[in-house]
């Protein structure tokens, strides 16, 4: 498989604080990369680099072999733990908004046949995430799971090359979370997506990912914790029956990685 995304010797520094150092990884097209690590280990910074919200201090990011500019592009979609959708728009309005902005960048409105086509595309996307009966519902009237389904539909409708998920299921109840695992796995397979997902839940990482990256510092200076940055300390390709290594579970303090979830 070819590398869709490549990070070459990336460093991210804020003043004299080094957040990420010597980060070199290649992410294959259609892979599902789960990112774990202790709080503050730079997982969100890594996601912001891929999203184009942040430029590295050193090193370069290549997307499809080309240097990626530090700006958000339609080729990358993102879902956060909360607040990914517009509260003042209905489900249909939220999903159509992205299509209208892409089709009419100045006015943000489509008319006639192109509007009808956008509406059909948006309705199909909402059906794909199980929201076909909630087209005219506002986010405030939805459960947390429905809001995340909507956020996924909104991110996917523009056919991004990479879908970035930042703790997307972290705020959901366990039962709803399992439904969302099924949904994202199905969409990943059906749409041939490349996914990078940050999660605090190590069993979720090992259940969903085809590869797990763990972020941590290789070097520590107790007198000056900011002197060294984090990097990828574990890079585990999975056959979906792999269990988290004991050292990784211990490092991340996972209370109980459930083997039943890892089948
Ligand atoms: N703009 C900034 N200026 C200074 N330091 C920053 C900035 N953004 C992030 N940091 C620091 O970078 C480090 C990594 O932050 P980041 O949010 O990427 O970690 P994380 O692994 O996602 O944490 P969490 O799991 O708690 O969300 C933290 O120490 C944070 O304080």
Automatic annotation (TrEMBL):
Against InterPro entries, the record matches this protein to:
AAA+_ATPase (IPR003593), ABC_transporter-like_ATP-bd (IPR003439), ABC_transporter-like_CS (IPR017871), ABC_transporter_ATP-bind (IPR050166), P-loop_NTPase (IPR027417)
Tell me which residues make up the ABC transporter domain: 5-242
A single Pfam family it belongs to is ABC_tran
- SMART domains membership: AAA
Q: Which keywords fit this entry according to its UniProt record? A: ATP-binding, Cell membrane, Membrane, Nucleotide-binding, Translocase, Transport
CDD domains associated with the record: ABC_NrtD_SsuB_transporters
Q: What's the protein called, per UniProt?
A: NitT/TauT family transport system ATP-binding protein
- Organism the protein comes from: Sphingomonas vulcanisoli
């Amino acid at each position: 498989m070819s590398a869709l995304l490549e990070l070459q010797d990336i460093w991210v520094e804020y003043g004299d604080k080094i957040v990420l150092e010597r980060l070199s990884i290649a992410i294959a097209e259609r892979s599902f990369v789960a990112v774990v690590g202790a709080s503050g280990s730079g997982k969100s910074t890594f996601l912001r680099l891929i999203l184009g919200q942040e430029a590295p201090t050193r090193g370069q990011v290549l997307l499809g072999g080309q240097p990626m500019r530090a700006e958000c592009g339609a080729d990358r979609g993102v879902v956060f733990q909360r607040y990914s959708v517009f509260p003042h728009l209905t489900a249909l309005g939220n999903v159509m908004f992205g299509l209208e902005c892409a089709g009419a960048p100045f006015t943000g409105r489509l008319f006639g046949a192109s509007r009808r086509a956008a509406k059909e595309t948006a309705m199909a996307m909402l059906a794909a995430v199980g929201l076909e009966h909630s087209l005219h519902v506002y986010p405030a009237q939805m459960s947390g799971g429905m809001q995340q389904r909507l956020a996924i539909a909104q991110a996917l409708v523009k056919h991004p090359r990479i879908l970035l998920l930042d703790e997307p299921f972290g705020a959901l109840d366990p039962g709803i979370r399992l439904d969302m695992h099924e949904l994202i796995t199905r969409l990943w397979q059906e749409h041939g997506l490349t996914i990078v997902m940050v999660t605090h839940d190590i069993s979720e990482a090992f259940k969903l990912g085809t590869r797990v990256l763990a972020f941590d510092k290789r070097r520590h200076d107790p007198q000056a914790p900011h002197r060294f940055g984090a990097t990828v300390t574990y890079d585990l390709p999975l056959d979906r029956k792999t269990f988290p290594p004991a050292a990784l579970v211990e490092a991340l303090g996972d209370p109980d990685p459930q083997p039943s979830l890892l089948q």
